[in-house]
Design a protein that fits this description.
Elements lengths: L12 H30 L4 H6 L4 H34 L5 H8 L1 H4 L2 H12 L6 H6 L8 H12 L1 H14 L2 H8 L4 H12 L1 H17 L2 H7 L9 H10 L3 H28 L1 H4 L6
Helix pairs in contact: 1-15, 3-8, 3-9, 3-12, 6-8, 6-13, 8-12, 8-13, 9-12, 10-11, 12-15, 14-15
């Protein structure tokens, strides 16, 4: 006689179905419907009006600025994430706990507060403001300030994907490579990095998505200068406040498409290389 299949829970089928329906209802109301509404509004006056929204010089400038910020911020966060995770997972040193705490700091600090901190540091009346003005260096209300704010809110993503995985893998592979005569850099390049490559790509995707969609910190340091310091999220806000709904939702739909592409890539990595990146959930 065959044993009945093992049930992970003791709840009745009705309870499980109800819980599942609540989850899908919640996601449908707060995720799917708003996403559908964005595209419905974007194409509300036809395809020609939709694509005409992207012919506006201010919209094109916002798109270019958003991509520029991502191109600068993501590689810098990539380098920091690899260095920080390698140091934390592979070495013992004083201040290790403090470093981990500082990496998590952007998760607990409001982006608006982060932007305000940069204004207090680099603004005209800030700590370094007079020196920057004397040397004709623009930080706040310019590209450098926006990049700094974006880097601050996004730098945990790569490190937080790599640290648990590297800690789970330990140092045995690197020690074996060193025993065979490899240098420290060679061990990192040929052993450590290949072992975490998919988690690294996963973290880069999340970092890039946040960099392109960041609003709060960027809004504080940008100055909302049309055609110069407005990113795509800020441009959407301006268009919406001007009742230019088609253009606002058109630009918003582009952000939504970028988010969906990121989600698709994330889901593919989880499906195809789940074992390689599962270690991050162990901690």
């Amino acid at each position: 006689m065959r044993n009945p299949p093992h049930r992970p829970t003791t709840e009745s089928p009705g309870v499980r179905i109800a819980a599942t329906l609540v989850c899908f209802l919640f996601l449908g109301v707060f995720l799917v419907l708003p996403l559908v509404a964005v595209f419905v509004e974007a194409f509300g006056k036809g395809v020609s009006a939709y694509f005409a929204s992207f012919q506006d010089p201010d919209a094109l400038a916002a798109i270019r600025l958003t991509l520029t910020i991502a191109i600068i911020a993501v590689p810098l966060n990539l380098v920091f994430g690899i260095a920080a995770s390698w140091a934390i997972a592979k070495f013992e040193f004083k201040g290790k706990s403090l470093l981990i705490t500082l990496i998590d700091l952007p998760f607990s600090v409001s982006p608006v507060v982060a932007g305000l901190v940069f204004v207090l540091l680099f603004g005209a009346q800030g700590l370094l403001g007079p020196w920057l003005i004397a040397h004709r260096i623009e930080v706040i209300f310019a590209l450098p300030g926006i990049v700094l704010a974006t880097i601050f809110v996004t730098f945990p993503f790569v490190a937080r994907e790599l640290i648990p995985l590297m800690q789970d893998q330990g140092t045995s592979d690197e020690e074996a490579a060193l025993t065979l005569g490899a240098s420290g850099f060679m061990a990192f390049w040929t052993v450590t990095l290949p072992n975490v490559r998919w988690a690294l790509l996963y973290g880069v995707l999340l970092c890039n998505a946040r960099a392109m969609g960041e609003f709060g910190a960027v809004a504080v340091v940008s100055g909302h200068i049309r055609g110069e310091t407005n990113t795509m999220p800020l441009h959407v806000e301006i268009l919406y406040n001007e009742y230019n709904f088609v253009a606002a939702f058109a630009v918003a739909s582009l952000l939504a498409l970028l988010a969906l592409l990121t989600l698709a890539a994330k889901s593919f990595l989880e499906w195809r290389y789940g074992d390689a990146i599962a270690g991050r959930a162990a901690h």
